[in-house]
């Protein structure tokens, strides 16, 4: 029989609950027949403890450089030892300039916004803006932080948003900025939005001031389709938007560059429940579904997503964060339930 070639993906089990949600995710993907060969690599706390100042050993960077694809669990940013954030190291090293955060209602997850038809994608610029971390004291009482935005940086993130809208057959792209106050930096993003929009006549362009965007996200979240915004604006509104559909614990994201892509859960390493077998793997599993679609393994993506949706909708064997008080099960039982639901259509 002819077997289709497998895609090699670097798996970073990470810190805290990271190894637990990674093991659960890979168990589900393997059971679903995902065409992936996993290459495990280290990053985060263990690397810092070994004295790797960036939190990411050379072999890990090499693995991602070669495979161009990574599935990453949360990494701790150690306080009191180590150097920078390992996450920032990788984002910068691989120039992962687009952070993609889909936000939509999941079956069985009830929120004050349930039933509104929320289905949007937030495209956040991931490497520029005030996150360049260039700060200094001007005098002993005046601190300054540089907000750096470049025309090529604005152009590629706007193009990423339009490309995504086109690929997913979405109707509109809204550029969210603070251009009314920061006319050069944020204004550059707004003007670039207008320029690029002209090339996509089938997609409705829009612009909104970021504070009103936060307001509208709460008042009328179903009105949004694709939102594209600068780094700090995106950091804030993507967490807000995740809250509308059930919180950070279930939110996936991807970090895309021109040469590599990294998929991860939005939540952190949850030290309070680490090692107890209680973590919910839904966010990393959802990120892995994004990865499957990225490598065009659409059938397997559909199969895993369907099994996850059925599990959530039926509400049987959910982890403690989603189940009614006292009815939660552990990571392994939830994972078994998703695997049992593979291949079911409803
Ligand atoms: P956190 O997301 O780890 O935890 C917040 C709360 O949510 C905790 O009560 C935790 O138990 C719960 N939670 C999170 N994920 C869960 C899951 N999958 N299942 C069940 N419950 C879950 O946030 P934090 O405590 O602020 O951060 C802890 C560490 O994670 C820090 O070192 C931080 O730097 C790091 N972090 C890493 C990333 C990343 O790697 N992308 C993102 C955020 C935070």
UniProtKB/TrEMBL annotation:
Keywords: Glyoxylate bypass, Magnesium, Manganese, Metal-binding, NADP, Oxidoreductase, Tricarboxylic acid cycle. It comes from the Bacteria. GO terms for biological process: glyoxylate cycle; isocitrate metabolic process; tricarboxylic acid cycle. It catalyses: D-threo-isocitrate + NADP(+) = 2-oxoglutarate + CO2 + NADPH. Residues 8-338 form the Isopropylmalate dehydrogenase-like domain. Its EC number is 1.1.1.42. Its cofactor is Mg(2+); Mn(2+). GO terms for molecular function: isocitrate dehydrogenase (NAD+) activity; isocitrate dehydrogenase (NADP+) activity; magnesium ion binding; NAD binding. Catalyzes the oxidative decarboxylation of isocitrate to 2-oxoglutarate and carbon dioxide with the concomitant reduction of NADP(+). Belongs to the isocitrate and isopropylmalate dehydrogenases family. This is Isocitrate dehydrogenase [NADP]. It comes from Acidocella aromatica. The chain holds residues 5 to 350 of 491 of the full protein.
